[in-house]
Amino acid sequence: MSHMAKKQDSSWTPSWLKHRALLAGEAILVVGVIQELVQRQMNHLGLPPHGKVLWIMACTLGVLGVLLLVVQTVIKRSLAKTHDVVQGIPLPMPFLLVHAALYVGLFYLYAFVWDLPVWPLSP
Questions:
Q1: 113-122: buried (b, 16+ CB within 10 Å) or exposed (e) per residue?
Q2: Which of 6, 33, 89, 122 could form an S-S bond across to 94 if both were Cys, CB 3.0 to 4.6 Å?
C-alpha cells in the first residue's frame, strides 16, 4: 500500500502571512479604492437608476476582470523573480517588510480617498 507524501512547508510563516495571501489582500484593497472612485463618478453621471446599476456592474466586471488577468499572468510569471530579489535584501523577513510598506501605503491611500484625517495627515 503506497501513501502519498504530504507536501511540507518548512516556513514558520502562518498561511495568512504568505506572499500570495498578502498579495491578494493588497489587490482587494486596491479594488475597493477603485470601486469607490467609480461610484463617485457614477453619482455625477446623468443616468437613470437602471443605467447607474448597469454602469456599476460593468465597472465591477471590468476592474475585477482586469485584476484577474493581471494576477493570473504578470504576477504568476514574476512571483519567483520578485521573491528572489526581495530575499536578496539584507534584512530579516524582507518580503514581510515590503508587504508591510504596501499596506501602510494602502492605509494612507484609503485615508486620502475617504478624506479621513490620520497621523501625519491630520491637521
A1: eeeeeeeeee
A2: 89
